[in-house]
Design a protein that fits this description.
Blueprint (H helix, E strand, L loop, with lengths): L11 H23 L3 E2 H7 L6 H13 L3 E6 L2 E6 L9 H37 L3 H26 L7 H34 L5 H8 L15
Antiparallel strand pairs: 1-3, 2-3
Helix pairs in contact: 1-3
Length: about 230
């Protein structure tokens, strides 16, 4: 059998050129999509090393030469971005509409922030409220207190004797004795002040003020009502 012909190998120069064109295509598509400036390191990182650093540098040079992208130097750093002449100029009316939409989105964002703050505040208030177990204990205490007060109210409404007859008689006798003593002392005070006023150069009111005596009238008390 005649020997098989070996497949012809592609010249290394053409293969390298093909690889550079592929890399250039990947980089251009990325810069076109992002439409913002990047340096070579950022492009390599953002492409997750789909293109090696050496191939990336050559591809950028090709794209700059073909005027597909622009190169700007800032100090020791070079940045690359898509040629903006290929983009259509924005209509002023369209820009104004976009500004209105942005303002609307900002207002909506502010409303959402305010709503979120209100929800957070309400949540904190709810978290400060007693839990289920604590609430049950408080309810049990209140029910017990309510039952006690209800029983007391029923006793008062039914006119049950809350004190013994002997205690009630003792209180009434003490009351009568106190009122009797009060009348006796009032009579003595009146006789003494009347005697003083006979030779006192000032009024009765000034006399009471000097000796610190308060009449029943000023204290809104009527001894006849006791």
């Amino acid at each position: 059998m005649p020997p098989k012909k070996q497949a012809e190998k592609e010249p290394s120069g053409k293969k390298a050129e093909k690889d550079e064109n592929v890399a250039a295509g990947i980089i251009y598509d990325y810069l076109l999509k992002q439409n913002r400036p990047y340096n070579a390191n950022d492009i390599c990182t953002n492409l997750h090393e789909q293109v090696g650093k050496a191939a990336l540098v050559k591809a950028l040079t090709i794209l700059v030469t073909e005027n597909k992208i622009k190169e700007k130097t800032y100090g020791k750093q070079k940045i690359y971005f898509v040629d903006q002449s290929g983009f259509a100029k924005s209509d002023p009316a369209e820009l104004s509409k976009m500004d209105e939409e942005i303002d609307g989105l900002k207002r909506k964002a502010d409303e959402l922030v305010a709503s979120n703050e209100a929800v957070d505040k309400e949540l904190k208030a709810l978290e400060s409220e007693p839990g289920t177990d604590e609430a049950k204990r408080e309810i049990a205490i209140l029910l017990e207190e309510n039952a006690r007060l209800k029983e007391k109210l029923q006793r008062l409404q039914s006119s049950e004797a809350l004190i013994s007859p002997a205690e009630r008689d003792r209180i009434f006798k003490q009351y009568e004795s106190n009122v009797k003593e009060w009348k006796r002392r009032k009579r003595m005070a009146t006789e003494i002040t009347d005697a003083i006023l006979d030779n006192f150069p000032k009024s009765k009111k000034l006399l009471f003020e000097e000796i610190g005596l308060v009449p029943d009238e000023e204290a809104n008390v009527d001894i006849k009502s006791f």
